[in-house]
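INFO  loader      accepted 1 record
INFO  loader      residues=512
INFO  predictor   begin
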Amino acid sequence: MQLSVWTYEGPPHVGAMRVATAMDGVHYLLHSPQGDTYADLLFTMIERRDKRPPVTYTTFQARDLGKDTSQLFQTAALDVVERFQPDAMLVGASCTAELIQDDPAGLIENMGLPIPVIPLELPSYQRKEHWGAAETFYQIVRKLSDKSRTRSPIDGRRPLVNLLGPTALGFRHRDDIVEITGLLGHMGIEVNVTAPLGANAGDIAKLGEADFNIVLYPETGDLAADYLKREFGQPAIRTIPIGVGATQDFVREVAALAGVDPEPMLQEGLSRLSWWSRSIDSNYLTGKRVFIFGDATHAVAAARIASEELGFTVAGLGCYNREYARDIRAAAKLYDVEPLITDDHLAVEKAIKEAQVELVLGTQMERHIAKRFGIGCAVISSPVHVQDFPARFSPQMGFEGANVLFDEWVHPLVMGLEEHLLTMFRDDFEFNDHSGPSHLGPGHSAPAPEDFAAPANDTETVWSEDAQRELKKIPFFVRGKAKRNTETFAAEQGVATIELATLYEAKAHYAQ
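INFO  predictor   done
INFO  writer      dumping tokens
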């Protein structure tokens, strides 16, 4: 186990929380010590939910370890049933409680509770959050799906589908569901159940009535989809509709299974991304180097969009969930880059620095990394912070999702270009360091000139004022690389102070 300031995934019981909190009428009893009670912070502060998560903790303390903590767990179970009256209850242990080996599943088995109880065996020291969510959802489907409720012949009725995988704390899951449900409705296809997000025990019971399943988030929905295929014979669509091309492929696959014509939907041109990415305003984006990191589903989709739909160059690709490393390796081979499979944010920071990119697509961790390097960044994947749960409609999937992606990915580069243009015209009478802000009109005082930090010690390189001014004219997204190269060149040449000529000599040296 590695201690870290940042983590991409929590322990598996956090994944179980995400499933329980996403559903209605399902309660999660977590055997845990005082200090593991952070569900409220996760879901009410980050996701801004309007109600508390349905999680109850036994909250044993140090003094309880000399007593019968198993009795504490059973008492808490009875209290959950009486107080919350859930339709079903999940029971499990946190990573800390796992060490005392009370066995919540065994403790609950003979209590004779009046509701379905689903015990969770989530090995906290071998698995992580996404796996915990997938295993929890699978166990819920296995326990609560009604084997007698199967699909009827499709003749004379609208095709029925299940949407599998969205959870609480999922990146834009709420809006993705709205977008995909609308897209399917436009094709004459009805959603039978969306789960776990918004589903209750009764919804899970009727999963077998659908004609097929759509796995929108494989990290959570894959195990359940495999079970439904074995138990009910339901085929599953696993094409993720992120980006115009993938959404078109998705529409064709769905239409083939549902027996409907996809062409009316495909010919409507519901996304502006394709037009914008071909427009003259976007020409300067071509070839921009981008580094992509996140969960495997979103990272692979982002690489395809960046390369095929926006004309970027994929300079780095990786994911933190090792269960899907094969998908990342296959995608990385397409773009001739080395796949990065790691949950160490420092390794990701090092890779971004070495790739010398102009845009980062990642999680909230990469947002911080990119900010430190002065590089534009757009968030594409969990883990995310409160700002990535917008009040507005902002999907990632479907044709409208492609519009959102274009805006969120291109705007950091557009604003970067604006900053670069202001820097280029630094010597202009309106934009130089000694003039006031031009948009405020005459009479406003000029900002204080920028101070150049003195070297921290005698061994650090000193830049002359002329060289510093010239360095500022270099576009911000490659300025760091130019500065490092020049300082390296100066050190190799034994130059103590970098003059304007040194900068030009270094440029010529590295251009060879």
